[in-house]
TrEMBL record:
The keyword Kinase does not apply. It is found in: Cell membrane; Membrane. It comes from the Bacteria. It comes from Chitinophaga oryzae. Pfam families: TauE. This is Probable membrane transporter protein. The keyword Membrane applies. One of its GO terms (cellular component) is plasma membrane. It is a multi-pass membrane protein.
Amino acid sequence: METSISTLSVKQQGRKWQWWHTAGTAVVTIALLVLLFPYLTPEATQVKVHDFLGTVFTTEILFYIAAGLCAQLVDGALGMAYGATSSSLLLGMGVSPAVSSASVHVAEVFTTGASGFSHFKLGNVNKKLFLCLLIPGMTGAITGAYLLADRINGDLIKPYISIYLLVLGVIVIRKAFRRHQRKARTKRLAPLAFAGGFMDAVGGGGWGPIVTATLLSKGRAVHYTIGSVNAAEFFISLSSAITFLFFTGISSWQGIIGLVTGGVIASPFAALLVRKIKRKPLMILVGTLIILLSLRTLIGLLG
């Protein structure tokens, strides 16, 4: 009896700590963004802080918060689509593609950090897989961000990567209906991580769809794959963000702060969803999402 009460107390304390962690992280994140603003924009020396706050904290920020929350729930639970969702939102609001990509990657530094931490706490991370993805992914992200900022047009590569993802989505759904899924040894993780990091920076998204979909198509455990890929994504996003900041700077602070706040709030719940949802429906959701995103990109390019 005492053991049961003690266990219940520990669980309640853990949940209470999780809520405090979420609220605290959101507050600290917003504070850091406000403090960093004067150092990241050349014009900021002539702009008063209260003018900046008045511009950012309008009713429109609630829309960004809601979008960030939804995008992070999808990304944390399925391992993909935060960048695609957020980029679509910013582009729909009239933000230019270059500024949109930079803004999303800066926001992802905070949201993926919170998501990765939650996955670590819940035991969703395979440390060996995480380490194999880390350095190649960061290298690919830095390379892609540099090339996009100074050398190439990322839209030229999108049709090919969309076709690749479309095929992977079909494979993932097909494997979801197999009763006995035998895990295949995943070779060449470094090239896979490099490609994922590169396309994430160049195309505004792709780390989750490319890396998660490929690993799941090989029969790897769903929650370990999603948790490990999400944990590594923080470092990939950080690498991209620093590179983009160096070349382009930031102008859409309202979008960044809104996306970050919504994403940080959703992160713990997204990590819990991975452990609660069974393998088959989760695989079907992942595969369907990959196919829909790929078709959306192809239709947009053809139209």
